[in-house]
TrEMBL record:
Keyword flag Signal: yes
Alphabetically ordered keywords of this record: Signal
Protein species of origin: Nonomuraea dietziae
The protein, known as: DUF4185 domain-containing protein
Signal peptide range: 1-23
Superkingdom to which the source organism belongs: Bacteria
Length: 368
C-alpha cells in the first residue's frame, strides 16, 4: 500500500507517444475496442476466497495481482502487500498484528488457482507467516512485478525498497531482482538474481513473450511523470543478455541507452497480442487520481502506441478510495481480454472496516 500513496498524490502530465526516430513503419490490422464487462467468474473466485473462513491464515485481500500459467495448467497469482486472516460477519477484518490485532500483513505472497479454488502460499509457518520473497533485513522489502516461465521454472520480478530514515515517507526504490521458483515449491525461491537497475528504471511493469524474444516493460517513476522503457532478452529466461530500445528504434546492450518511449503509463501496465496487433492497458496517469483505464494500440510489441481509448471508468474512485495499476492477463480465457485493477484507500482503517476495498477487480475487454 505504501508504494502507491505518494505517487498518486502528485499532479501528472500529458501523454506523449512519439514514433521513435528511424523506426520502421509497420502496418497491421489494429484491434478496435468495442465493450467492457465485469468478469463474473474471477470476481466470484476472489470474493469467495477472501470471505472463506475455513482457514484463518488465508488470503483476504491484496494488491499487485499479476498472473502466469504454470506447467500443468494451474494459474499462479502473484501479489504484493497482502492481508491474511479471517473476515468478520459484518465484512470487516481485525487490525494487523503490529496494531494489536490478528491479521497478518506481508509484502508479497502467491495463490494457486485449481478447479475454481485458490490456495494461498506464503513462507514461514502458519503460526508465523513470512513473505515468499523474504527481505534481507527489517529495512528492506520486496514488491512483486510480472512473471514468466522458463524451462519449467517460474521467474518472478521483484523491486526491492529500502528505508533510509524514521519518517513515514523515508523509503525509496533500491534495485530490481528476479527470483526463480520451482512450481512444486513456491513458498521460497531456489535462487535470486540481480536484474539491471541503473538509471532508476523498475523492470517489473509487464512481461510479454513474442517470437524469439521476451519483452520486459519498465517504468521510470519521477512522481509527477512516469515514463515507459522497454528491454528484451532472447528466449524465455530473464537471465539472458538484455537489450534496450533506443530513441532511434534500434536496440543497445547498454542500459544507459534505454529511451523514454512515452509517458502516462502507471507503475504496472501490460502489452498483449490482440487480434492483428498489440494492446497496451494502463491506468491513465496523465490525470491525478484518475478513474480511467485506457488502451493504446500498436502493430508491434515495442510501439509506437497510439489511439488512446478510455475502456473503463472505475466506479470505486472517490473520497478516500482510489484505483490503480490496471493490466491484462492474456493467458486467462474469457469472453475478452481479461484485465485486473486494484482498489485502495488513503485511510488505513478503511481496510479494516470493509474487506472489499483492498481486493482486485476483473474486467473483460472486447476487441475486434
Amino acid at each position: 500500500m505504501r508504494r502507491l500513496l505518494l505517487s498518486f498524490l502528485l499532479v501528472l502530465v500529458s501523454l506523449v507517444a512519439p514514433q521513435a526516430a528511424g523506426a520502421t513503419t509497420t502496418t497491421c490490422d489494429l484491434p478496435t475496442f468495442r465493450a467492457t464487462t465485469t468478469d463474473a467468474r474471477l470476481s466470484a473466485l476472489f470474493t469467495d476466497q477472501g470471505n472463506d473462513n475455513s482457514r484463518t491464515d488465508d488470503w483476504t485481500g491484496a494488491d499487485g495481482t499479476y498472473s502466469v500459467r504454470l506447467p500443468g495448467g494451474k494459474e499462479l497469482w502473484i501479489f504484493s502487500d497482502t492481508f491474511l486472516g479471517h473476515v468478520n460477519p459484518d465484512g470487516s477484518r481485525p487490525p494487523v498484528r503490529e496494531e494489536g490485532g490478528t491479521t497478518v500483513f506481508l509484502n508479497n505472497t502467491f495463490a494457486v488457482e485449481k478447479d475454481g479454488r485458490l490456495s494461498t502460499i506464503y513462507g514461514g509457518t502458519s503460526e508465523n507467516p513470512k513473505a515468499v520473497m523474504p527481505p534481507r533485513d527489517k529495512d528492506h522489502w520486496y514488491w512483486a512485478g510480472d512473471a514468466t516461465v522458463a524451462g519449467g521454472i517460474v521467474e518472478v520480478t521483484y523491486q526491492e525498497y529500502e528505508r533510509y530514515g524514521t519518517g513515514a515517507w523515508d523509503w525509496r526504490w533500491h534495485r530490481n531482482v528476479v527470483a526463480r521458483f520451482a512450481p512444486g515449491r513456491l513458498d521460497r525461491p531456489i535462487s535470486v538474481h540481480d536484474l539491471p537497475s541503473g538509471h532508476k528504471v523498475a523492470w517489473a511493469s509487464g512481461i510479454h513473450r513474442d517470437g524469439r524474444h521476451t519483452y520486459v516493460y519498465g517504468v521510470e517513476d519521477l512522481g509527477g511523470t512516469k515514463y515507459m522503457h522497454l528491454a528484451r532478452v532472447r528466449g524465455a529466461s530473464l537471465l539472458g543478455r538484455w537489450e534496450y530500445l533506443k530513441a532511434d528504434g534500434t536496440w543497445s546492450a547498454d542500459q544507459a541507452d534505454s529511451a523514454r518511449l512515452m509517458d502516462g503509463v502507471a507503475n504496472e501496465y501490460s502489452v498483449s497480442r490482440v487480434k492483428g496487433g498489440y494492446v497496451l492497458i494502463t491506468h491513465d496517469t496523465t490525470e491525478i487520481l484518475s478513474s480511467k483505464i485506457v488502451a493504446y494500440t500498436s502493430c508491434t510489441p515495442y510501439g509506437p502506441f497510439s489511439n488512446k481509448t478510455t475502456v473503463y471508468t472505475t466506479p470505486e474512485t472517490g473520497g478516500n478510495i482510489f484505483t490503480y495499476n490496471a493490466h491484462a492477463h492474456p493467458e486467462i480465457a474469457g469472453p475478452g481480454l481479461v484485465v485486473s485493477y486494484n482498489v485502495n484507500s488513503f485511510v488505513n482503517t478503511d481496510h479494516y472496516r470493509d474487506v472489499t476495498i483492498y481486493r482486485p477487480r476483473f474486467l473483460d475487454l472486447a476487441f475486434e
